[in-house]
Structures are given as structure tokens and as C-alpha cells.
Amino acid sequence: MAEKKKFYAIAVGRKPGIYTSWPEAQAQVMTFAGARYKGFATRAEAEAWIKNPVYPGPALKAKGSGKTRPAPAKAAQEGEIVIYTDGGARFNPGPGGFGVVMMENGERREFSGGYRLTTNNRMELMGCIVALRKIKDKGKSISLYSDSQYVVQGITKGWARNWRQRGWLKADKQPAVNPDLWAELLELTEGLKIDFRWVKGHAGNEFNERCDELAVSSAAQADLPVDRGYKG
């Protein structure tokens, strides 16, 4: 089955307009301060939003009704920690950043940072790492939401643990990418009651959108540090 086309509407960016490729759209918004953009299933929806770009984005229709509701975002219940993370790099590789929204003990905290030369996947991993470093009560149940299949499947399908067991080699005997960050992430998850969950990016999820804002803003900062683990 052919993959369904996605339309990205950029209201504020280097070159506003409608794009059908996320890498092309990302180049218009990454490190662009105050960027405003959203993803849509149809061009008509994208064009309608760009005329009136309400942020964080389009409402989703509730099943069985003509009414609309915001995209669901999981908040923390008593006794648990909920984390949302995101990351990216302009031009991939290029200037990059990550963002974290963490909800714990009724408190919402945000973290972010960036590097002058890095990759999308390294920043996705770094967001998770920074979040887990900041947890206050490691005995609680943790739900971590990321829009990176690379990160979520790397943990939930055991890929990263297998790479580590093989001395950071993949099944095809090729070197695993980003072993430094995977090693730290695996170490941080040991002993935790943590569930990694995938969330669709650029789809109106309040916390995912906020993480994206933090990542983009961080990547746009001047005098960013060197990502010493990046092997370009």
C-alpha cells in the first residue's frame, strides 16, 4: 500500500507555503525563531490553516460527532511521571536541539539544549537522556512519549540492547550509529519502571508541539557547544 501523502503548512518560516516533504519543510523552520507550522492529511486543510494559523494547530474531529477536540496529550496521574521529548537538526546534520516537557508530582518542568553540528537522531536520543537525568523519584512509573520511531523501537524491540551485547554491532555486522548516546540511555533506564511510547509528530499534540518549539528555539541559539560524540 502506498504511503499516504502528508502536507506541511508553514505560516512563519524561511519560505512560507505548503510542502509535501518533511525534510524540505524542516529546512524552512529549523533554527528559525518563532516558526509556525503544522502537518495535515490534505492540501485543502493545510491551505485553510495557513490563512488563519491558530497554534498549536488543527483540532481533530471526535469520533461519532461533528465537534472537534484537541489532539490528545497524556498528563501525569498521581504516582506516575509523564515525559514528552523531541529533537531535530537543520539540514541533518547541522545545528540541532532537543526539548523536554516533564510532569511529575503536579509540577511541569521544561528542559532544552542544542549543539552546533549534530543529527536528528542524536537530538531525539539526547532529549530522552536529559529527561531521565532530571527525574526526582526513580521509583515511580514513567511514560515517555517520543515521535521518533528510531528511539522508541530501539528500546521496545530490544535493538539497542542487542547492539550493546554485540559490542555495538548491528545484526549485519555493521557498526551501530550513536553508541555513546544509546549506551547512556540504556544505563539510565535500568531499574526504572518505564514505558517508551510513540506519538505522532506535528499532529497537534500539545506537549509534542511544545517540545518541538523548545528544540527549534535551542538550535537557533548562538555559540552552541560542540556535540563531541557526533562522528560526521
Question: Can you offer a commentary on this structure?
Answer:
The protein is an alpha+beta fold. Helix content is 31%, strand content 27%. The protein is built from seven helices and ten strands. The strands form three sheets. The chain has a five-stranded mixed sheet with strand order 8-7-6-9-10. Strands 2-1-3 form a three-stranded antiparallel sheet, with helices on both faces. Strand 1 and strand 2 (17-19) form a beta hairpin. The radius of gyration is 18 Å and the shape is globular.
Judged by helices, strands and strand pairing, the structural class is alpha+beta
Biggest sheet details: 5 strands, mixed
Mean pLDDT: 86
Instruction: Give the beta-strand count.
Output: 10
Q: Give the termini separation.
A: 35 Å
Shape: globular
- Counted by DSSP, the helix tally is 7
The whole-angstrom Rg is 18 Å
Sheet with most strands: strand arrangement: 8-7-6-9-10
Element order: H for helix, E for strand: EEHEHEEEEEHEHHHEH
Low-confidence stretches: 56-71
List keywords for this structure.
232 residues; alpha+beta; five-stranded mixed sheet; three-stranded antiparallel sheet; 31% helix; 27% strand
Task: Produce a short descriptive summary.
This protein is an alpha+beta fold and 232 residues long. The chain has helices spanning 22-29, 43-51, 120-134, 149-156, 159-165, 179-189, 206-219; strands at residues 7-12, 17-19, 36-40, 60-61, 68-69, 80-89, 94-104, 107-118, 141-146, 193-198.
